[in-house]
Fold this sequence. Notes:
alpha/beta, TIM Barrel, Oligo-1,6-glucosidase, domain 2, eight-stranded parallel β-sheet, binds alpha-D-glucopyranose, binds calcium ion
Amino acid sequence: MDYKSMSVYQIWPRSFCDGNGDGIGDLEGIYAKLEYVASLGVDCIWFSPLYPSPNADFGYDIADYKDIHKDYGTLAQFKKVLDKAHSLGLKVIMDLVVNHSSDENVWFQKGIDPNSPYHDYYFWRKGRGKNGKRPPNNWLSLIDGGAWERNEKTGEYYLHVFAKKQPDLNMDNPRVRNEVKDIMRFWLNMGVDGFREDVITLISKKEGLPNGFPLPAATGMEHYFNGLHVKEYLREFKEDVLDKYDCFVVGEAPMMKPDTALEYIDEKHKTLDLMFHFQHMEADCFLMDFLHTKFNLRKMKKAFSAWQKKLDGKAWNTLYIENHDHPRIVSRYGSEKYRVQSAKMLASMYLLQKGTPFIYQGQEIGMTNIDLDADKFIDIFAKNNSAVFKKLHFSQKWIDRMVKLSCRDNARTPMQWDASENAGFTTGTPWFYVNPNYTEINVKAQEDDPDSVLNFYRKLLAFRKENEVIREGKYKEYCKKSKYIYAYERVWGNVRLLTVNSFTAKGVRFEAPKGYDLEEGELIFQNYAKTPIVNNGFMLRPYETRTYLFHRS
Length: 553
Ligand code: GLC
Ligand code: CA
């Protein structure tokens, strides 16, 4: 499948569009909005989990891998959505969460019994010490304190590197791998076009589950990040199933560096087609979103450039600046005060790079974080992180600030369709707060405005399709040392594209690099009306973006 020419739109179903008025987004709502998605100029939809789930982690805790959550509809409705998407020229990929399941999955329920064939689907172990009252090892969960939970009936503990309700699947068990392959076949046979594989680089745990190096958080992670057998298991999925279908797979890889990534995505021996990595999303935080710091443009540029360079000619990159796990990008790397300008600037900043872009629902209209009191946020990461930092005696004020800045709920507020009540998301009571700025920021208002963020995205996505330089062009960064400007060129044949992006409200001057005469260029993307050039350079206004195209004979 030609995923290299695609752009992908991510739908987080609960907040996209409610078709039946119960306040929760669903397949009926999605069905009604498919023309809108197609109108953006994207080629594929990624659905965050649609499966039955107790929603401890909003679908990333799957109770049944071969069905649809009743809040969203039925399998038959899903099939209708799939067929309509295909008829509109849109591919569809499913989220596949197999590092862990829900504790309400029948595999887990049956497997509590040590004699059940499902017992070995998970990591059940006896406790240490007298009466086995100490967990089997010292691992800490990535979000939930200890990584082990004890079952009172059997006295055994199960491993969960995420929340308690997300027990880790034992991928070393060939029967579990067969289940995964079976799930893949189920959806591929129905017609889906691939998968986004959740935290897939975590699926192989070190044999014997030895104690981890005692870090303050997530002790033990060195024993399951990029574990010994991950690539072997991914190869098995590929050879036994994926290679037999016209499909593609994008794997999520926390804490990944480009050199290690190549071990997975190098065209010569790839086990994943694409990979989601995080380095460029860490320019305003330390280790995790929760530990928010001041935005550092140089850190962001360095990450983007490293991935552009190291993958060039060897592997295919992904491009994204938003998804359901991060606050809204305008509020993070841009400016709410210069919302329209910065939303457009951020769009050209990443969409002109090399790779397959992903756009998250609402990003295309420049949605922002929501201004709520910290205790109104419900996401499990925010809740658990708050508890952890409270125990470590951080002040409530500091914790509340981190929650507001970093909470994933910021990106999970209902989609803003129009200026009617509840932003046109539902006729009922929305399951979560609608951002009150919907009266101003919504799809309808932007459809009618040729200068809107929405239409800017459309233009960029169309440009990507029509210009080989986007797919093939060499990348080179300029003004590397600047704390305010991100500029780079893409060069392909006699076409040269230069994009200049300001990340500040201050005025900063940009000087054309050697060999460029700006007067010769065609200004193809900009977010201000007047665009003077003075002495082969210009003053960048707040969050200004300008892209010039040059043809050389
Ligand atoms: C991934 C998902 C995130 C989820 C986590 C555990 O990072 O994107 O939403 O909480 O995995 O499944
Ligand atoms: Ca609904």
